[in-house]
Structure formats: C-alpha cells, structure tokens
Amino acid sequence: MIELFYTKPENVSDNEISFDDFEEKHILQILKKDINDKILVTDGRGNVYQSIIIRKKPRLLVTIKKNEKRPKPKINICLGVGFIRPNRLDFIFEKATELGVGNFYLFRSQFSNYSSGNFTRYQKIMRQALKQSQRFYLPEINVFDSVQLFIEQTTHFNNKIVAIGSEHPSLLKNLNKMPIKNNDSVLLAIGSEGGFSEKEIGQLCENNFSPVSLGKNRLRAETAAITGISVIQLHIYTELQLICPDNSGFHWVQQ
Amino acid sequence: MIELFYTKPENVSDNEISFDDFEEKHILQILKKDINDKILVTDGRGNVYQSIIIRKKPRLLVTIKKNEKRPKPKINICLGVGFIRPNRLDFIFEKATELGVGNFYLFRSQFSNYSSGNFTRYQKIMRQALKQSQRFYLPEINVFDSVQLFIEQTTHFNNKIVAIGSEHPSLLKNLNKMPIKNNDSVLLAIGSEGGFSEKEIGQLCENNFSPVSLGKNRLRAETAAITGISVIQLHIYTELQLICPDNSGFHWVQQ
Questions:
Q1: I want to staple B43 with a disulfide (CB 3.0 to 4.6 A). Which of A50, A119, A193, B9 is the partner?
Q2: H or E, element range at B49
C-alpha cells in the first residue's frame, strides 16, 4: 500500500504540492523517501493526489500525477464530548478519527473539571490518525461553552444519542430501533468525568437526544466515547452494508 | 460511592489488611484518607472487604468489618492479542480491563515487530483500571511464543472469534448467529500491527476461530482490540440482559 500524507489545502497549487516541517520530516527523514518515489497526499478535504517527489531541498516538492475527489462517508458519525483531562482527549481524537468520526463537538459542562485543551496537539494527532487509517477528510473540532450551546448548534443531526447510564436501554437496542438511512447523520454525546447534571440531561432529552447505556461497566469518559463510536460504526456497517467510501482501499493509477 | 482499593491476597489476614507502597501512597497521600475512614478493598480474586483505617504509620493498616465474595461475571470475555509496541499495549490493558475482560493472552506471531512488554507496568495499569471500574477480579496475562501455542491453550473457550478484515462477516452479524448462554466464554483474537500470516489464519480457522470484520475502517491493532471488546460486551449486555455481577454497584453495609 502506498503511504498517505497530509498537507494543508493552501499548500496545493495546480500541479505541485509542498508540506509543513512536520510532514516533510516524516516523509524524508523517517520514511527516507527519495526523488521519483510515489506518494499519496490528501488535503483532508476529500482530495487525494497521486504524486511523485521531484525535489528534496531546500523544501520538499512533489508533482501531481492524478487528482481525485473522494466522496464523504454516506453516514456522518460525529462525537460530542465534555472537556476531560487534556491527555485523555488525545486518546479520543486519535481513536475516534481512526474509527471514522466526521467532526468533534467539545463542550464545557456543569461537572467538567477542565475547560480547555491543547488544540495544536489534537490537530497533529488527528492528522496522524487520518493518514494511518487512510481517510481523506480531516475532522474539525468545534468548542461550546455549555451543553445548551452544543444542543443549539447540532439540531441538524437526525439521530442524536446521549450515553447516560445503565438505567437506560442499551445503545445497540436503540440503534436497532433507529431508522438510519443513507445520508443520515448520527451524533453521540458523552459527558465529562463527572457526567451530566440533571438539568443538562433534561435539556438533551427535550432536544431529541435518546438516552442510552453502554453496558454494565463503569467506564471512563474517553472509554465510553470509543465504545459508543465503535458500536455505532459497526452497527451501521453491519445493518446497512454501507461502505464509507473515504475509507475504501486506494490503488495507484497505472501510468 | 466509596472508593475501591486493591491489595494482594497475601496482605489479607483474618481481620486486617495491609498494602504495598503504591496503594498506601494512593490512599494516604493522594486521597488523604484518615483514621476511621471507611474504604473498600478487593484482593482481585472476588473478595471485597469493607474496612476501616485503624493505623497510618509506620504502615497503613485497616480492619475488616465485612467480607463478601463476589461471583465472577456470568460470561467470561477474554482477549488474545499479538505483541505490539509496548506503550500501545498499555492502552489495551487499561481499556479492556475497564470493559470487563477476564484474562489476556499475549502471543508472539510471525508478523510481530515486538516480542516483549513491561509487565510490571501492565499490572499497575490493570490494578488502576480495576479500581476505577469497580471490578473485583484482576485479569491475568498469559504469554505464548506462537499463535499455535495460543490456540492449543485456549481450546476451552466455546466462542472464538478472530478479527481479520472486511472480506469477512461483521462481528455483530457473527455475534447475532452465535449462541451465547450463561457461563459461556468468548475469546477475541487480534493480530499485531502486521496482522496474521496466511498460515496463522489457517491455524485459527481450523481451530474454530470464526473470522470477522470490525468495519470498513483501517484500525490500529489496539483500536481493533477495544472496538471488538466494546461490541462484544454491549452485545452480550443487550441480547442476554445478563448483568456481570462483579460490576454491579456496591452499597456500604449499615453498621
């Protein structure tokens, strides 16, 4: 398989691509790529460039041999999560990106002990996960000051779920009842370590978030997030036999 | 909720419990527990001790007020995984312990780039996850020199699954067909970063491991492990309404 690399959209010209320091180091120093080597490059917005290295110094430059726009996944799975310990968010951004999450919604909530994170670091983590999992759409992170604002900005999702506790039906039971079709969108909300307040749960449920349980185990917030996303993506894959097109394998064009 | 702590079985006498340095520091220095404070202690073998701190120096000592033996989960979910980068195994031991995995089987395989790990560290991680998730059975780690040896030592599992790739039926479809009853055991096998060799896949399939897919996404080994365990535990919880008893809430006895 040909390695996939990332560059910002502004680094792509008509027929050439340049890279930032981080990516250049990865390509040249770590993977020891050389002149005439083929690489795949994505701009994280669905464009995939089959390219060839034409210059290594002073800055790496590749020439585009073929450009293809890959479609977005047929079902958009997104994750909303309360602020938790910043290094535990690392884990969420890495794993949820691998698992195909479209966008992230981070919110400050009543019981959050944290209210910020290292977004430069999260970007880097998502880029790495994007490349590793051969996806072509880089997720965006949206931040909200309260659960109420998060709710107001996510009304466009037609399937909304909030993981609360074992008194509610299981996520799988809920998914089985929920009609998910092509071009649908699913939003899973997970509280911070302290969970949601009664008031926040009320607000979520009034706004069509279905309360679910993720099983009998007492999970950390970041484990709950990945468990929920794992189950949602496998359910969609299984039930609807929909294949997220931006995750399908990539074959190098014959020249 | 009363905090749960861990001590090795040999630190429990008829009516008193002592702790190792790590746990003592956690109880006294981090959580600032004091004489007469109530704590819950488990030996990781199903025993739960409702205890009261009676001495802080020179070593912490608690007296047992009540001892209860908690049953094992009704369905034993275990995870077999190839050696991967040691710090990525950290993640597996933490998350899979939270998610209720009974025991771990680590094996060296043809395509593994790694063949060892930091087992002292993994023990510590599992202890922390055990306490955090309020479980009372500490998983054991078994190590095998080959996939063949792993197969030979796990013949007692009556449901065996191996995650291979998207050409196979999805894990959820497989679980729906697989009859899981009380006292059953489920073993999920995940390859190392390089996956299984053709020969290893043949050996696994010949020995009743059902090949499954975890979805269309290209997952790292440790993500695949957690995705698989997440789905298995939620499926069992959902379909059979079996409640793992060692994860149920704990109420302090009235004195």
A1: B9
A2: strand B47-55
* Whether the predicted interface score ipTM is above 0.85: yes
Chain B residues near any Cβ of chain A (below 8 Å): 91, 95, 98-100, 132-135, 170-173, 213-220, 223, 226-227, 230-231, 233-235, 237-239, 243-244, 247-248
Nearest alpha carbon to residue A236 among A171, A189, A140:
A171
Instruction: Considering chain A, tell me which residue range(s) the CATH 2.40.240.20 domain(s) occupy.
Output: 4-69
Distance CA B192, CA B203 (A): 16
| Residue B7 backbone zone (phi > 0: left; psi -120 to 50: alpha; other: beta) | beta
Cα(B207)–Cα(B53) distance, rounded to whole angstroms?
51
Cα–Cα distance measured from residue A214 to residue A40, given in angstroms and rounded to the nearest whole number = 38
Q: Which of A170, A219, A237 sits opposite B98 (nearest CB)?
A: A219
Q: Using a CB-CB distance cutoff of 8 angstroms, which residues of chain B are in contact with residue A91?
A: 91
Q: What is the C-alpha to C-alpha distance for residues B148 and B134, in angstroms, rounded to an integer? A: 35
Question: Which pTM was predicted?
Answer: 0.91
**What is the full per-residue pLDDT of chain A (255 aa) written as tens digits?**
678 999 999 999 989 999 999 999 999 999 999 999 999 999 999 999 999 999 999 999 999 999 999 999 889 999 999 999 999 999 999 999 999 999 999 999 999 989 988 999 999 999 999 999 999 999 999 999 999 999 999 999 999 999 998 889 999 999 988 777 777 899 999 999 889 999 999 999 999 999 999 998 889 999 999 999 999 999 999 877 644 444 444 444 333
| Structural tokens at position B186 | 């489920």
Range with lowest mean pLDDT among A76-85, B77-86, B114-123, B244-253: B244-253
First to last CA, chain B: 17
Which CATH number describes the domain made up of A4-69?
A: 2.40.240.20
Q: Contacts of residue B213 in chain A, CB cutoff 8 Å?
A: 237
Cis peptide before B211 (omega within 30 of 0): no
Q: Which of B226, B227, B246 to mutate against chain A (most A CBs within 10 Å)?
A: B227
CATH class of the domain whose range is A76-240: alpha beta
CATH 3.40.1280.10 domain extents, chain B: 76-240
Which chain B residue has its CA at the smallest distance from A133's CA? B218
